[in-house]
Amino acid sequence: MTSNKELIKSIETKYLKNENFLDKKNPLVEIGNIIRIGYLIPEGEKERTQYYEGLVIAIKNRGIGKSFLIRRNVQGIGIEQIFLLNSPKIISIVKKQSSKVRRSKLYFLRELRGKSTRLKIKF
């Protein structure tokens, strides 16, 4: 007799993506990384790819429902968007830059403006 946790895990493994951006040794989606996401958007009968670039400020780990929050500034207005990591609509994830951070959630960046929002670059 299997437990409920084992049953749920066996079902979830069928739907998890096995992409290179989910690699545990060199993850692309980490707190403080600036990433560029290719996301499929339906327009009528066609689909087009829209790219979204921003700073990862939060990650929520929930198995198949793992999600991350991206923040970017557009014309002085901060925009945040949540992406599901295992979504079939995500085509690509490219890491642009890594930053040295000491927090697991970077919500304090919401109140900061201008140059104070910069983070130290990790080499």
Automatic annotation (TrEMBL):
Q: Where in the cell is it found?
A: Plastid, Chloroplast
Record Gene3D superfamilies: 2.30.30.790
Any single biological process term in GO? translation
* Main location (coarse class): plastid
Molecular-function GO term, any one: structural constituent of ribosome
UniProt keywords, alphabetically: Chloroplast, Plastid, Ribonucleoprotein, Ribosomal protein
For this record, the Gene Ontology CC terms, alphabetical, are: chloroplast; mitochondrial large ribosomal subunit
Q: Name one Pfam family in it.
A: Ribosomal_L19
Q: Per the similarity annotation, which family is this?
A: Belongs to the bacterial ribosomal protein bL19 family.
* HAMAP family named in the record: Ribosomal_bL19
Query: Which NCBIfam families would you find in this protein's record?
Result: rplS_bact (TIGR01024)
Q: What is this protein called?
A: 50S ribosomal protein L19, chloroplastic
Which source organism? Synura petersenii
